[in-house]
Amino acid sequence: MAGGDSAKKKAKAKAAPPSDVDLRAQLPYFVARLAVLVLVTVVLALVGVSVLLAVLIGFVVAGLLTWPLGRLQRRAARRDRQ
Question: pLDDT at position 61, please?
Answer without folding.
Answer: 92
